[in-house]
């Protein structure tokens, strides 16, 4: 499984809304490009760019082929390899401003949109007898949304193509078509795309969007039950029987399933809250372990589901999926690290790390923030805010912090006092500088291997 923790965070609104539309988001994201990585995080993104991820398109057939018509590889293009690659490399290319990567992702977008068929289908199943399953398109949608954020002139083309596809997908779902076990597991990814349209480009199609969301949920795996305390596995699973479809215990699916709860809340208004987060990068693993003690053919095979090569580094140990999907972690971590409140009065620093961002808040208040830190390799973060007008800045304090302190503008250290995980800092017009110190209790644990 591809491990992206500890950066998984799910936030839902605490306000219950009796209306039939979508509940409002609790925070709004900033467009791709508004946040840039600095310090060790910029270095790491450059390592990835100069490594396998940034060069895959030059040689790896699953993403490098230039023509899908007649192609029948399961992994190619939108079924699923190209789609994964696109989703990761769109933000990677923008964040490091790499002309080559940006032209590869543009070419990919153009190819896919130019080959949408009359029915609205997107993908290589056109004019073949291959069955049409929905899921492979979902990471492509995320990549296309990010391209629109970085280049708003693409909006009409992308939104038009999405709506053509959605009206086909809606009919398919009502006819029980387009679903297999991966589509049933990862339905929330499509819901999130539908919610992006609803929020920003509803085009009077709200009923179609909500109906499609409901169809996806009712035909998909029941994530709220999978995460329910009475069913959730808390130990080794090889001798347990999964009461739900077997893929719900696949690590990646579980991580993705966390998104299903807030995504569902927005259209059912039913509340459940989840708050949970070196090499030259020319190779990757299938199973990643913290403090890994071996990277070799493991015989006897200790992995209950995966082969003995699962923790070996390479181009393709086990499946190609991680080769094409691994690049999305760092760019997505960066581009989601800051949010704004729905009234756009406040900037919210969600994921801790070295970043800088600039945006214009409500009332034309242009603000910037830059965070100087080694975090998570150190406990201290120094943030410099510049603002035209006074505003409230929020920073997330992880729940494991013990005796955390904040020092504002060289004053005395004060205990942090987060509410719902966020500490408010009063930023004045001009420069505000604060230092967070976030210590943790040292805990001992046991490694099972
Ligand atoms: C990105 O690169 C292009 C071409 O090299 C350059 O014109 C542009 O200013 C760069 N953008 C940023 C934000 O650095
Ligand atoms: C599918 O086949 C029809 C009939 O041969 C052709 O007109 C159409 O262009 C083909 N579509 C694609 C996307 O290749
Ligand atoms: C809300 O979700 C909970 C947990 O999944 C479920 O038990 C309950 O039946 C749902 N309520 C409604 C009104 O759907
Ligand atoms: C937090 O403060 C208490 C009281 O001063 C102290 O006993 C404890 O060791 C501190 N914990 C950490 C992680 O610093």
Structural summary, described in words:
InterPro entries: Beta-AFase-like_GH127_middle. By secondary structure, the protein is an alpha+beta fold. It folds into 2 domains: 6-288 and 295-335, no CATH class; 338-437, Golgi alpha-mannosidase II (Immunoglobulin-like, Sandwich). Helices cover 34% and strands 14% of the residues. It has 15 helices and 12 strands. It has helices at 39-50, 52-59, 61-64, 81-95, 99-114, 138-150, 155-174, 181-185, 187-200, 206-219, 223-226, 251-257, 260-268, 321-325, 329-335, and strands at 28-29, 35-37, 338-340, 347-349, 355-361, 365-373, 380-387, 391-396, 405-408, 414-415, 422-427, 430-437. The strands form 2 sheets. A 7-stranded antiparallel beta sheet has the order 2-5-6-7-12-9-10. It has a 5-stranded mixed beta sheet with strand order 1-3-4-8-11, with no helix packed on it. The longest helix is centred in the middle third of the chain and has 20 residues, at 155-174. The model is unreliable at 1-18 and 274-278 (pLDDT under 50). The protein binds 2-acetamido-2-deoxy-beta-D-glucopyranose (NAG) (4 copies). Residues 97, 99 line the site of one 2-acetamido-2-deoxy-beta-D-glucopyranose.
